[in-house]
């Protein structure tokens, strides 16, 4: 049908623990995308969000309110939020009716932060899978506070959560280390930044943990966890500073490649643009080194020297 509105839509499902920066990301990314000329619709799926900083095209709060659910069902904030997502899952017609008039837009979904929604609860996954059936091609953008890099034990738990999320959500996936501008304030990193972003040989992390008298007793457990992460070999991160355009652009390049936007039907894409997206991964390592220099004080010691001290 000539002139019919395109049915395929692209977008991002922004997930991650509470406080990891999802809402701030949606604001920053939507402004960046608009500057690039994309028509963006931000959809708030998090009933716990208050005072949204961005212009919201659809708000789940119109369907179900967290406060009402907590009062009516005598639930706490966590249980209330899970109920809200189950309610949305049972009322997807409402969501479809809201999204259909927005076809032709690029969607950003600001999702709730309850970790169980992304690791084992079924509602959010089922909502994403339904949206895929509506020909909405989403990349899951999983934000993790870069603060976790400063503590090896927390970093291992973050790797486990990220892996579980990738396996459970079943969408093309990009992991981000958010709030890179704060990483220096969080404390000294034991290794260079690329060690964390590329998830390099985790045995160094185990050795580093063994130097802590508390974690020495958990070495076997940590070894098994690390082995699991390395066996799957799926988790890596892109560092993000939401204030920095270059950083957002790098993230967008990975996201566009993951959901196929860069090869999409909606825009005339030059061969050059496609190639730059396809080649993006090759420049990724050098860009992480750039960020290392930008956000971290140079260490007087090399990684090898530090490893020798362990
Ligand atoms: N310095 C800094 N603060 C950030 C960044 N992203 C988010 N924040 C702050 O972190 C807090 C939580 O962010 P928010 O976007 O509400 O997280 P959400 O719960 O995942 O939606 C807010 O106070 C933000 O201002 C960032 O990139 N840098
Ligand atoms: Mg939020």
UniProtKB/TrEMBL annotation:
Would the keyword DNA repair turn up in this protein's UniProt record?
A: no
**Record keyword Phosphoprotein present:** no
Identify the SUPFAM superfamilies for this entry: P-loop containing nucleoside triphosphate hydrolases
Q: Tell me which UniProt keywords the record has, alphabetically.
A: GTP-binding, Hydrolase, Nucleotide-binding
Matching entries from Pfam families are given as:
ATP_bind_1
Gene Ontology cellular-component annotations: cytoplasm
A single Gene Ontology MF term assigned here is:
GTPase activity
Q: Which family does it belong to?
A: Belongs to the GPN-loop GTPase family.
The UniProt function text for this chain reads: Small GTPase required for proper localization of RNA polymerase II and III (RNAPII and RNAPIII). May act at an RNAP assembly step prior to nuclear import.
Q: PANTHER family in the record, alphabetically?
A: GPN-LOOP GTPASE 2, XPA-BINDING PROTEIN 1-RELATED
Subunit comment: Heterodimers with GPN1 or GPN3. Binds to RNA polymerase II (RNAPII).
Query: How is this protein named in the record?
Result: GPN-loop GTPase 2
Organism source for this protein? Answer: Odocoileus virginianus (White-tailed deer)
Give the gene symbol. GPN2
């Amino acid at each position: 049908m000539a002139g019919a509105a395109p049915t395929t839509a692209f977008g991002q499902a922004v997930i991650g623990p509470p406080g990891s920066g999802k809402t701030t990301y949606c604001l920053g990314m939507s402004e960046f995308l608009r500057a690039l000329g994309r028509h963006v619709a931000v959809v708030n799926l998090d009933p716990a969000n208050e005072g949204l900083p961005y212009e919201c095209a659809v708000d789940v709060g119109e369907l179900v309110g967290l406060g009402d659910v907590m009062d009516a069902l005598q639930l706490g904030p966590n249980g209330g939020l899970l109920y809200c997502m189950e309610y949305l899952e049972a009322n997807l017609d409402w969501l479809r009716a809201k999204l259909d008039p927005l076809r032709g837009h690029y969607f950003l979904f600001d999702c709730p932060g309850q970790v169980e929604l992304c690791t084992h609860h079924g509602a959010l996954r089922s909502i994403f899978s339904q949206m895929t059936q509506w020909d909405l091609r989403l990349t899951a953008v999983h934000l993790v506070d870069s603060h976790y890099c400063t503590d090896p034990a927390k970093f291992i738990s973050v790797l486990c959560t990220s892996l579980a999320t990738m396996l459970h959500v079943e969408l093309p996936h990009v992991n981000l280390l958010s709030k890179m501008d704060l990483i220096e304030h969080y404390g000294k990193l034991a290794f260079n930044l690329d060690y964390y972003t590329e998830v390099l040989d985790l045995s160094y992390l185990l050795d580093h943990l063994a130097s802590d008298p508390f974690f020495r007793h958990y070495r076997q457990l940590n070894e098994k966890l690390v082995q699991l992460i390395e066996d799957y070999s799926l988790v890596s991160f892109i560092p993000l500073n939401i204030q920095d355009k270059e950083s957002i652009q790098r993230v967008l390049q990975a996201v566009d490649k993951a959901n196929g936007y860069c090869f999409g039907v909606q825009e005339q894409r030059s061969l050059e643009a496609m190639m730059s997206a396809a080649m993006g991964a090759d420049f990724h390592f050098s860009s992480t080194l750039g960020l290392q220099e930008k956000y971290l004080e140079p260490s007087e010691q090399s990684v090898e020297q530090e490893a020798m001290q362990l």
